[in-house]
């Protein structure tokens, strides 16, 4: 029987998803004899998503263009499910890939499930065990994993989470995190980007620069104000320090940040950064204060300590390795933790030199290999989704 290419539809719609899925899409496109890669953009983000696509040289075959002013989770979820359903009818893929924990992730997996198309989850198995932290990401990834057929877990810890929930072992693949693939690909080009960033012209990069990012829904209101008061104290009370704060476009974030921090000479409030400039700033920073998930994975590769201003994290591996510390949102705790790393070299280097647990930059290769091993062989034999004996031997592995 003649071999035909495995048609893989990748569905994503936010900047973090695009960054982490770009290496996978590029690997599928590289293997022209094995795969036909199709990309569906939901447009859950717009400008930031387009920047990443352009940088990696990837184009969308379908674009749902969902982003609208004042839309809520109901709007996005319905739009993704209906939009992806239409794409599935046109594309007829053999397998759908989704990534992570966004509403695009859950909606794409649900649409594929309804259409009877196998789903692979890139970055599967992350858990906080609290459905409201982070919200709605924790439930998005749990629901997605309940719908999926093959799981690409970044770490053994993530794989164990899936096994505890009853996932069949031979559908779990430990791959590393694709964000490391992306980081290593762009890092050489990012080195000189800080010189051209609007708003950072006066930054003295020889000082200790603290990079701050906040954007999560659960951070809005009191938590972000509490964190900003700690940042203010850092600026006023600790010598030889700058704070660099790329502000999220959410007006609620900006209102709190600007009210508390705007007039400080050593606090640089700037517009959101594109991926390359952000990597450059992260690389030149002394430490990072964030509620982001992806930064917890990227920064250890750059030897940067990360203080997470959340109450829980789904990325336990970095905490266990010592590269990341979860410190909550209370002003006094945030201030004291940042101050310690700025003034205690031993504590700083203990975190900075911790081992990055997220892989070697070959996650996309492992994902493509697994897809071909499972679904490519089934196309040749025209069999069902059940694994043959050879594939069953894969188990939970890298």
Descriptive keywords:
alpha/beta, 2 domains, 16 helices, seven-stranded parallel β-sheet, Rossmann fold, globular, six-stranded parallel β-sheet, 398 residues, disordered C terminus, 46% helix
What can you see in these coordinates?
The protein has 2 domains: 6-176 and 362-392, Rossmann fold (3-Layer(aba) Sandwich), CATH 3.40.50.2000; 193-352, Rossmann fold. Helices cover 46% and strands 15% of the residues. It is built from 16 helices and 13 strands. Strand 2 (35-41), helix 2 and strand 3 form a beta-alpha-beta unit. Helix 8 (222-237) runs parallel beside helix 9 (251-261).
Give the gist of this structure.
The protein has helices at residues 15-30, 47-56, 73-91, 103-115, 137-147, 156-164, 178-190, 222-237, 251-261, 275-284, 294-298, 316-321, 331-343, 345-352, 363-381, 389-392; strands at 6-12, 35-41, 62-63, 95-99, 119-122, 150-153, 172-174, 208-213, 241-246, 267-270, 287-290, 306-308, 324-326. With 398 residues, the protein is an alpha/beta fold. Helix 1 (15-30) runs parallel beside helix 2 (47-56).
Task: Give the SSE layout.
Layout: E1 6-12, H1 15-30, E2 35-41, H2 47-56, E3 62-63, H3 73-91, E4 95-99, H4 103-115, E5 119-122, H5 137-147, E6 150-153, H6 156-164, E7 172-174, H7 178-190, E8 208-213, H8 222-237, E9 241-246, H9 251-261, E10 267-270, H10 275-284, E11 287-290, H11 294-298, E12 306-308, H12 316-321, E13 324-326, H13 331-343, H14 345-352, H15 363-381, H16 389-392
Parallel strand pairs: 1-2, 1-4, 2-3, 4-5, 5-6, 6-7, 8-9, 8-11, 9-10, 11-12, 12-13
